[in-house]
C-alpha cells in the first residue's frame, strides 16, 4: 500500500501581516524575522541563523551547502531557451520577429527555473508518477518530446496557409474541399499498478518532456505580459535595449503578445492534463486582473472605472499584496503547482500544495524586492530609471510604510505624485523612513515562509536549490 503523505505533514504557520512589521524592524529583536525564527523549529534542511550561533560561533555547525539553483538545471534551461524559438514561427515574418524579440535578450528565467526545480524535487513522489514516466517513454502515449511537437488536429486545419509548408497548410486559391478523416489514434495500454515500495524522489535527474514544455509555456506567458505591460507603462527600454513598443510600435507589440498566448494555448493542450490547462489559463486572467487593479489605483477616472481610494491601514496593504500576487506571484505559484501535477501528483497529496505555497510566497517576496529596487539608483540592465513606479503614480511597499511614519505622504499618494516635485518629495520621505527596511523585512518573512513549506519535501539537491533561491530573492540587487 502507498504511504499516505498527508497524514505525516505538519503544516507551517502563516506570514505576519505588513502592519505587524514594526518600525524599528532592523533594530529590535521582536521583528517579524526574529519572531519567525522563534516560531519555526529548526529542521535538517533549515540553515542555522546568526542568533542561534551567537554564543558558540566557532563550534556551531556550518549551514548546509546548497546547490546553486541556476547551475543545477543549467543545461535544461539552455535547452528550453533554444527550442522555445521553434514554437514561435509563423507565415508572417514580421510577427515572428517581434514575438521572438524579448527572447533574444538574456532574462532571469526565474519562472522556468521554478518549474524545473519543483519537477525535480517532487518527481517520483506522486501516486501517478509511474504513469507519467511511462507516457514519457512509451511511443504513442503522448508524453514524448516528438509527440508534444505534433499537432493533435490535422495540420492543414490547425495552421494557416504557409507557402513554405504546402503539404501541411491549405492554400486560399481554391475553396476548401472535404478531406477524409484520419484513422483514430490507438493509444498503448498503460501499466495497471505502480511498482511496489515507498515513493521516493526520482534520481538521477528525471525531468519529463511535458515539464520542460511547461517551463517554456510559463516563460512565453511572462513575455506576452511584458509586451503588453511595456505598452501600458509606455516603457522606452527593457533589459537595457529598446522596448518592443519603442522598436515596433504599440499595435504590433499588443498583437505579438496575443500571438504568444495563442501559441501557449496550443502547447498547453498537448500536455494532456486538464488541471494544468485550467491552472495556466487562470494565470493569464490573474495577470490581467492584477494590471487592472494597478491601473485602477492610478487611472480610474480617465478609464471611466470605479477607482480605489487609498487610506492608511490594512485595507491598503490587502490591495497592494493582492495586486502583487495577481501580477507576479500567481504565475510562479500556479506554474510550480502545474509542474507537480504533470509529475503525477494526485488529488489529496500534499506535493502540489507545497509548490503553490512556495511559489506564492516566493513571488510576493520577489515583487516586494523589485519595488525596493525601484527606489534605488535605477537599474541599467533592466533599463529602469530609479523611481519609475512613482513616475507611474504607483505607491508600493516602501511608500506605504513611509506613509505610516510621515503623514505628508498621504496627499502625495492620493494625487498620484502628479504635481511638480511630488516624486522627489516622496523619494525623500521614503529615505527618511524605515520604509525600505520594512519592505525588505516583509519580503524576508514571505521568503522564510517559502523555505519553511519545503520542509515537507524529502531532502534532495533540487530542494536545496529551492531553499537557496529563497535567500537569493531577498538579497538580489537587480
Ligand atoms: C511587469 O510589471 C508586468 C507584469 C508582471 C504583468 C503585466 C500584465 C499585463 C499587462 C496584463 C496582460 C497580460 C497578458 C498575459 C497578455 P512592472 O511594470 O512592475 O515591471 P517592469 O518594471 O519590468 O515593467
Ligand atoms: Mg512595466
Automatic annotation (TrEMBL):
What GO terms in the biological process aspect are recorded for it?
A: isoprenoid biosynthetic process; ubiquinone biosynthetic process
Q: List the CDD domains hit by this protein, alphabetically.
A: Trans_IPPS_HT
The keyword ATP-binding belongs to this UniProt entry's keyword annotation: no
Signal sequence residues: none
Recorded superkingdom: Eukaryota
The cofactors required by this protein are: Mg(2+)
Q: Name one GO cellular component term.
A: transferase complex
Q: Where is this region: Disordered?
A: 18-46, 174-197
Q: Name one Pfam family in it.
A: polyprenyl_synt
Which SUPFAM superfamilies does the UniProt entry name for this protein? Terpenoid synthases (SSF48576)
- A GO MF label: prenyltransferase activity
UniProt entry keywords in alphabetical sequence: Isoprene biosynthesis, Magnesium, Metal-binding, Transferase
Q: Biased-composition ranges for Pro residues?
A: 180-197
Composition bias (Polar residues) maps to 32-46
Name the protein family.
Answer: Belongs to the FPP/GGPP synthase family.
- Write the protein's name: (2E,6E)-farnesyl diphosphate synthase
Amino acid at each position: 500500500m502507498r504511504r499516505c503523505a498527508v497524514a505525516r505533514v505538519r503544516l507551517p504557520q502563516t506570514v505576519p501581516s505588513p502592519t505587524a512589521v514594526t518600525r524599528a524592524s532592523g533594530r529590535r529583536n521582536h521583528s517579524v524575522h526574529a519572531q519567525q525564527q522563534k516560531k519555526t523549529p529548526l529542521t535538517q534542511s533549515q540553515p542555522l541563523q546568526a542568533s542561534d550561533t551567537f554564543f558558540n560561533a566557532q563550534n556551531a555547525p556550518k549551514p548546509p551547502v546548497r546547490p546553486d539553483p541556476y547551475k543545477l538545471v543549467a543545461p535544461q534551461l539552455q535547452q528550453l531557451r533554444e527550442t522555445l524559438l521553434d514554437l514561435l514561427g509563423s507565415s508572417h515574418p514580421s510577427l515572428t520577429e517581434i514575438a521572438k524579440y524579448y527572447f533574444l535578450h538574456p532574462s532571469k528565467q526565474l519562472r522556468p527555473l521554478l518549474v524545473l526545480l519543483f519537477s525535480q524535487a517532487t518527481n517520483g513522489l506522486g501516486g501517478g508518477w509511474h504513469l507519467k514516466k511511462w507516457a514519457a517513454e512509451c511511443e504513442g502515449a503522448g508524453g514524448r518530446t516528438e509527440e508534444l511537437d505534433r499537432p493533435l488536429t490535422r495540420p492543414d486545419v490547425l495552421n494557416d496557409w504557409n507557402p513554405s509548408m504546402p503539404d501541411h497548410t491549405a492554400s486560399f486559391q481554391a475553396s476548401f474541399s472535404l478531406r477524409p478523416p484520419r484513422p483514430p489514434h490507438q493509444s498503448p495500454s498503460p501499466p495497471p499498478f505502480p511498482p511496489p515500495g515507498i515513493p521516493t524522489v526520482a534520481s538521477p535527474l528525471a525531468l519529463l518532456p511535458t515539464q520542460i514544455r511547461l517551463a517554456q509555456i510559463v516563460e512565453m506567458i511572462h513575455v506576452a505580459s511584458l509586451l503588453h505591460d511595456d505598452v501600458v507603462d509606455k516603457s522606452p527600454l527593457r533589459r537595457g535595449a529598446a522596448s518592443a513598443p519603442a522598436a515596433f510600435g504599440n499595435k504590433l507589440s499588443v498583437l505579438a503578445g496575443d500571438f504568444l498566448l495563442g501559441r501557449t494555448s496550443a502547447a498547453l493542450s498537448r500536455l494532456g492534463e486538464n488541471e494544468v490547462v485550467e491552472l495556466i489559463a487562470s494565470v493569464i486572467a490573474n495577470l490581467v486582473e492584477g494590471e487592472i487593479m494597478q491601473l485602477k489605483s492610478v487611472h480610474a477616472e480617465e478609464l471611466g472605472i470605479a477607482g480605489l481610494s487609498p487610506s492608511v491601514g490594512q485595507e491598503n496593504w490587502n490591495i497592494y499584496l493582492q495586486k502583487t500576487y495577481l501580477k507576479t506571484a500567481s504565475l510562479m505559484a500556479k506554474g510550480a503547482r502545474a509542474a507537480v501535477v504533470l509529475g503525477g501528483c494526485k488529488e489529496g497529496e500534499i506535493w502540489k500544495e507545497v509548490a503553490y505555497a512556495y511559489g506564492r510566497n516566493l513571488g510576493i517576496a520577489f515583487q516586494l524586492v523589485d519595488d525596493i529596487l525601484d527606489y534605488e539608483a535605477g537599474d541599467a540592465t533592466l533599463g529602469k530609471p530609479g523611481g519609475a513606479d512613482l513616475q507611474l503614480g504607483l505607491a508600493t511597499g516602501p511608500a506605504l510604510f513611509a506613509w505610516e511614519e510621515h503623514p505628508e505622504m498621504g496627499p502625495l499618494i492620493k494625487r498620484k505624485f502628479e504635481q511638480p516635485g511630488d516624486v522627489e518629495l516622496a523619494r525623500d520621505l521614503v529615505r527618511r523612513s524605515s520604509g525600505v527596511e520594512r519592505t525588505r523585512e516583509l519580503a524576508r518573512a514571505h521568503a522564510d515562509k517559502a523555505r519553511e513549506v519545503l520542509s515537507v519535501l524529502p531532502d534532495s539537491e533540487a530542494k536545496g536549490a529551492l531553499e537557496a533561491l529563497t535567500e537569493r530573492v531577498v538579497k538580489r540587487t537587480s
